[in-house]
Design goal:
The protein is built from 7 helices and 10 strands. The protein is an alpha+beta fold and about 260 residues long. It has a 7-stranded mixed β-sheet with strand order 1-2-8-5-10-4-3. Strands 7-6-9 form a 3-stranded antiparallel β-sheet, with no helix packed on it. The structure holds 2-oxoglutaric acid (AKG).
């Protein structure tokens, strides 16, 4: 898997992603933005983060979902232009527009063992040859190291890739500096690493899916309408306030006026 610089062109990122199922772009977000987001998340993590603990998520891990309802500045990562360009390039040929799937903040504490390897898109009950349904963008809010639980993955294990699945021997760790983003296909085997350090490791995973698929998180019911309306148009469209093509999800206030064309 490649660790690319933030000056890389979209074509190169896509090439690596399609080949390996995952790719890192380093230093794409600046420290002040990450701090603001973490400050917004902190009270929610402390109040609610443990509610999501279970065998899969871990018992030494705090999690939060539906981030647009909790941390306004998470929108800057969700609608990061370089990430959206990659998502559009990969998913765009198979849909009219892409949509946000889920938004999850994950803080892995010391003592957390490895998470089971899994595919993020396994709730979709079928596959279409040569089509990836989803891309994940894992933002490092701290440096990600093998010691503190960097995301583990099986390079090439994606649906359109080459590697036989469940190959624990070929697991690699997505080590990356704070502010970097790991882009990976929804069908790629991956999971959180064990945190053997003395400090928590925080990250945010935003997923993007083909626009005609049901979104993993229901943005309409998770984010109050006034708050949704306060986001820039790109974010609102990603949330689903936009029909897919002329008919799917049509509604009177469609930003392209398609309700009246239907
Ligand atoms: O925290 C991580 O590094 C990955 C977490 C993950 O893949 C998940 O919870 O679905």
């Amino acid at each position: 898997m490649e660790n690319l610089s933030s000056h890389v062109d979209t074509e190169t990122v896509v090439e690596c992603l399609v080949r390996d199922g995952a790719v890192i772009i380093e230093h794409l977000a600046q420290a002040p933005l990450l701090k603001v987001i973490m400050d917004e998340l902190r009270p929610h993590f402390d109040r609610e983060g443990a509610r999501f603990q279970n065998d899969f998520n871990g018992y030494q891990t705090l999690r939060l979902g539906a981030l647009l309802g909790l941390a306004k500045h998470s929108a800057d990562l969700i609608a990061h232009p370089q990430v959206l360009q990659v998502a559009d390039a990969v998913l765009g040929p198979h849909c009219e527009c892409i949509r946000l799937g889920s938004t999850t903040a994950i803080e892995i504490y010391p003592g957390q063992p490895v998470q089971e390897l899994h595919e993020d898109d396994s709730f979709y009950p079928m596959r279409i040859p040569k089509v990836e349904f989803q891309i994940g963008a894992m933002w490092a809010l701290d440096d990600f190291t093998i010691e503190n639980g960097a995301t583990r993955l099986v390079q090439g294990s994606h649906w359109t890739g080459q590697v036989t699945k469940n190959d624990e021997a070929s697991v690699i760790s997505a080590e990356m500096p704070k502010g970097s983003v790991l882009l990976y296909f929804g069908s790629l085997l991956h999971g959180g690493g064990a945190n053997n350090s003395k400090h928590p490791r925080a990250g945010i995973i935003n997923t993007y899916a083909l626009g005609w698929l049901r979104q993993e998180e229901n943005q309409y019911l998770s984010v109050p309408r006034e708050l949704a309306d306060s986001y820039p148009e790109t974010v609102r469209r990603l949330m689903g306030y936009q029909a897919h093509g002329k008919y799917l999800g049509m509604f009177p206030a469609d930003p392209d006026g398609r309700w009246y064309e239907a």
